[in-house]
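Can't paste images in this forum, so I'm doing it all in text. The chain is below; anyone willing to post the predicted C-alpha cells underneath?
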Amino acid sequence: MGSGAGFPGIPLKIMFPGLAVTLLDSLRKRTDFLEETVRSLGLREVTIVHGRAEDLGRDPCYREKYPLVVARAVAPLPVLAELCLPFAAVGGIFAAYKGPEGDRELAAAGGALELLGGGRTGKFFYNLPEGQGRRILLLIKKEKNTAEKYPRRAGKPQRSPLG
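Text version of the structure:
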C-alpha cells in the first residue's frame, strides 16, 4: 500500500491520514504472510490478528469497535453478516464484496441483517478488468447493536444460516 496504493500517484496516507487497519484471518499461514508484507512495506497503523471471527466477534476488544468492516466473498451473505456485523460499530458500515448473485443474496438476507443490527443498504456495481465479469459491493449500515448471542460458535453460522 505504498505510494502506488490509493489513486494513481497518491499514497493512502495522504488520502486517509490517521487510517488504522486491522486485518483478521483464522489461518496462521496467511497472518504470517500479512505480517511479513506489512513489515517489508514499512506500513504503520496495521494490526494483524490471528483468530476466528466467531470468537473475536464476542471479544470486547473487537466487538462493535470499527467504523468500517470489509469482507471478501467467502460465504453467503447471511453467514458473512453474522461473522462481520458484530465487529461494526453502530453507525458504521459493513461492506461485502459479492459476485454476480449479490443482489439475490441481499434480498434473501434481509431477516438476518435485521436480526444482526443491519439496516439501510447501498450497492455499488463494477466490472472486473479484461472481461472477467461484473461484481457488486454491498454496503450495509449498522443501525443497532448486535445481540450478545451473535456470532454463534464456530461452524454454526455455516451449518445453520440466519434468515
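The beta strands are 21-25, 46-50, 66-71, 88-98, 118-127, 134-142. DSSP finds seven helices and six strands in the chain.
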